Amino acid sequence: MVDGLRAAMLRLLAVLALVAFSVQAVDTDRIVRSAQKYGPTGVANAKALQQMMASLAGKDDATRLKAVNDFFNQRLAYMEDIDNWGVQDYWASPLESLGKGAGDCEDYAIGKYFTLTSLGVPHAKLRMVYVRASIAGAPNGYVAHMVLAYYATPEAEPLVLDNLIPTIHPSGQRPDLAPVFSFNAEGLWQGVGSIRANGDPMVRLSKWRDAVLHARQDGFQ
Question: Average pLDDT in the 153-161 region?
């Protein structure tokens, strides 16, 4: 009887594990279908994204970070929002950017964020980071910029995924970036530390809320 109970428990755990996996697994076919509304460039880029994501199944976070960082840095040409969208500031969803084949710093970071979460990287390990980037010749010596940060653990030094410098580096090796605040789908922080800022990021950052909504409608997690 004990052996039978143990066997039943093992079967139940297997079913629960399968259900949990099916809930977390992203439907890349849905992403490709959603890309149709963004035109031929969007479909071609979405299919390339699908292939890249499939190749990362079972890989560790370091491999995923590099592949996703390289993908968006190579697929998107830098373009200011006013030229790309006809407005001063627009935060595009991943498929919107891939449909244009272009984006600005927020668009690179948003594309990387949702691709990584759809690959199973927890939201808690990723933060969008608004920074002041030191640029020679820029007014005041810096420009407003956005990067994506990855935290292996809550206390770890974050890794920076950026379009200005395409290789991934720990934040300590990026003295050109001065963090102002950071956020993800779950919270809002002062700088890149553990001190939370007041408010729901979905409420305080309306452009982020819209980007999250559009990304999820297109099949990203």
Answer: 95
